[in-house]
């Protein structure tokens, strides 16, 4: 799999690698598919992705249905496919109304054309991307001469880690963004090792597609390219540095040709920047610790929020939280021990760090520190410390830790008994945590109550026509349900005709604020 093998031993190694990759993919599918199929409540941003990928973003925002009674089906058409292959429409809508680049929405549109529009369909795309990323991570470890056992353990740990669980459950571009970060690392390592032009061309393509996926991709791109250039400088490889610089320039030009209006999205994002305050500064600084403890954790926290907030209201949450904190601290301690042992037993100084083997860990730590610095300095919004937003860093960190673990083992004459026990127990612990997390998600369906209320309503008055809120509310509504959607001020000013509401057997007033937290407030009007 990793090379054109010419010996029986190489053929056996390649076959073993292939089997391990299949096991990793099978684990990902078995762990995540039940969880994804159990999702019923769409989030604000998730439904925006669906409306955008079905080429209806502009149509929704300019809808004539606002402030009047209409069938729910008239609203629901805005998240259904009315046309195919409308990539230009998606791109122009992203420039005019959004802050994100279009590539993920192009991919999601193709996926919808092939497999239909549904929550499960959109989420399964994430699962496919996670499986591909796991393959890339495993291959990168093997290219860096990490043993098959360590490569398998590192990739398995990444696959079931909390950042993976968080990102796979949202209909957004974070999984794809992370896959391109993993691909960037792989092609950078291959180019440094083999110096073949095809890898440099591939690196250029990954740079373009990565920025077209997420405007934060320049963070891993800049860090990786800078480290590659530093490694080449230590090698006195001036020609390769010039080639790398040319590839970056070509990638930048290609990106601008494809997305000439990207600066409009950037300025729109700057308008959403949050003001600096001292209390929030300390709060943001303190959020780094619980976030770091979750990066390698295979067990869900009850609420993996930006500040690591935990819900202690119910006894089962207390047990889950205590177990999660213990496992989070334990996994972080294990990672730190592995890295420290490798540093103590390995080469020191700049030459010891500017190597292909240590490129992943250096890139991962620098990207993580950059994200933390942007967050604490108020460059990034409050949610940017959430695990799905930091997901792009994880391939670098997990590959880097795997390589450091290999360095520590190579410095020993033979593996210790403690290491052998850890290798034996770790896969079981990871899988048990992943199974428990998915099972808890599937069994605990507290959001079903508001969904059922909306689904059986005959008439709805919704105090919002907001882009993300209204589709989330009406996703499961009966197509024949009468809906009056407007802002709260418009409802109070206009006093909508109560005819459909009075005639309805089940009439609900839906507060958008309540819907985003505990559920819709409701009033029932019976016949007669």
UniProtKB/TrEMBL annotation:
InterPro entries per record: RgtA/B/C-like
The protein's Enzyme Commission number: 2.4.-.-
* Record-linked Pfam families: PMT_2
Q: What class of enzyme is it?
A: transferase
Which regions span the lipid bilayer? 16-33, 103-136, 143-162, 174-192, 197-213, 219-234, 241-258, 317-340, 361-378, 384-402, 422-443
Task: Identify the keywords attached in UniProt to this record, alphabetized.
Answer: Glycosyltransferase, Membrane, Transferase, Transmembrane, Transmembrane helix
Q: Which GO terms describe its molecular function?
A: glycosyltransferase activity
Q: Where is the Glycosyltransferase RgtA/B/C/D-like domain?
A: 100-254
Q: Where is the signal peptide?
A: none
State what protein this is by name.
Glycosyltransferase family 39 protein
Report the source organism.
Mycolicibacterium pallens
């Amino acid at each position: 799999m990793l090379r054109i093998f010419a010996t029986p031993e190489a053929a056996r190694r390649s076959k073993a690698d292939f089997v391990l990759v299949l096991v990793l993919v099978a684990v990902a599918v078995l762990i995540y598919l039940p969880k994804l199929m159990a999702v019923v409540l769409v989030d604000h941003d998730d439904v925006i992705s669906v409306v955008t990928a079905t080429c209806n973003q502009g149509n929704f925002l300019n809808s004539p249905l606002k402030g009047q009674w209409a069938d729910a089906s008239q609203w629901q058409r805005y998240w259904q496919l009315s046309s195919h292959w409308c990539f230009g429409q998606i791109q122009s809508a992203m420039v005019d109304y959004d802050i994100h680049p279009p590539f993920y929405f192009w991919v999601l549109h193709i996926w919808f054309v092939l497999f239909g529009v549904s929550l499960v369909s959109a989420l399964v795309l994430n699962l496919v991307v996670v499986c591909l990323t796991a393959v890339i991570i495993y291959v990168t470890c093997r290219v860096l001469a990490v043993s098959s056992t360590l490569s398998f353990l590192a990739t398995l740990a990444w696959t079931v880690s909390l950042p993976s669980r968080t990102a796979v459950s949202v209909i957004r571009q974070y999984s794809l963004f992370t896959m391109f970060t993993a691909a960037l690392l792989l092609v950078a390592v291959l180019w440094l090792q083999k110096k073949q032009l095809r890898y440099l061309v591939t690196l250029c393509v990954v740079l373009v597609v990565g920025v077209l996926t997420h405007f934060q991709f320049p963070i891993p791109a800049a860090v990786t390219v800078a480290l590659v250039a530093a490694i080449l400088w230590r090698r006195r490889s001036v020609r390769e540095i010039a080639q790398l610089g040319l590839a970056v320039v070509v990638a930048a030009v290609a990106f601008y040709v494809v997305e000439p209006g990207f600066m409009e999205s950037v300025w729109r994002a700057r308008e959403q920047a949050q003001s600096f305050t001292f209390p929030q500064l300390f709060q943001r600084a303190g959020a780094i610790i619980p976030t770091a403890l979750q990066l390698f954790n295979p067990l869900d926290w009850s609420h993996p929020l930006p500040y690591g907030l935990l819900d202690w209201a119910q006894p089962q949450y207390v047990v889950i939280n205590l177990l999660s904190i213990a496992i989070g601290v334990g996994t972080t301690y294990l990672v730190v021990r592995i890295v420290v042992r490798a540093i103590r037993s390995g080469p020191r100084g700049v030459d010891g760090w500017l190597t292909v083997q240590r490129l992943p860990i250096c890139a991962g730590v620098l990207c993580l520190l950059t994200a933390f610095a942007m967050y604490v300095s108020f460059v990034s919004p409050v949610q940017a410390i959430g695990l799905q937003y930091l997901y792009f860093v994880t391939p670098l960190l997990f590959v880097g830790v795997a390589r450091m673990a290999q360095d520590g083992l190579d410095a020993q004459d033979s593996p210790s008994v403690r290491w052998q026990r850890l290798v034996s127990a770790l896969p079981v612990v990871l899988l048990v945590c992943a199974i428990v997390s998915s099972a808890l998600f599937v069994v605990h369906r507290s959001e079903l109550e508001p969904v059922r209320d909306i689904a059986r309503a005959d008439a709805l008055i919704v105090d919002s026509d907001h882009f993300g809120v209204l589709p989330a509310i009406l996703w499961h509504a009966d197509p024949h349900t009468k809906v009056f959607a407007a802002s709260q001020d418009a409802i109070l000013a206009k006093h909508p005709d109560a005819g459909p509401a009075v005639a309805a057997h089940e009439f609900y007033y839906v507060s958008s604020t309540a819907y985003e937290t505990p559920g819709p407030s409701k009033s029932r009007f019976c016949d007669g």
